[in-house]
Amino acid sequence: MESKAAAATPPYQSSARFADSQCYPQYTASLKCKFSGLEEFGSDKSKCQEHFDVYKECKKKEREARLERNKSRSLFS
To answer: What distance in Å separates the CA atoms of residue 53 and residue 43, rounded to the nearest whole number?
Structure first.
């Protein structure tokens, strides 16, 4: 029998909606800065670098968690 936590977490990111990702708020903040902020800052991407770095770190942690989940799964279960 499958637990509620396992049912809520899709086995693969591709089967989930991107908007449900833990990194979606960081993603939207980086895009907002990139598109609206760059008009304000000219083409100076360094003004948005903090947003880019936060999103990149979130995606890295999300990927590591997914790899750990997949490592614990058996192909024959």
So the answer is: 18
Instruction: Read off the pLDDT band of 28 (50, 70, 90).
Output: very high
Highest mean pLDDT, choosing among 1-10, 38-47, 65-74: 65-74
Tell me if 51 sits within 8 A of 26, measured CB to CB: yes
Residue ranges of alpha helices (H) inside the chain are 4-8, 24-32, 38-41, 49-71
Query: Which residue type does 69 have?
Result: R
DSSP character at residue 76? T
Nearest CA to 34 among 19, 51, 21?
51
> Which residue range forms the structural domain that includes residue 33?
23-63
Token duo for residue 64: 């590591």
41 is a domain residue: yes
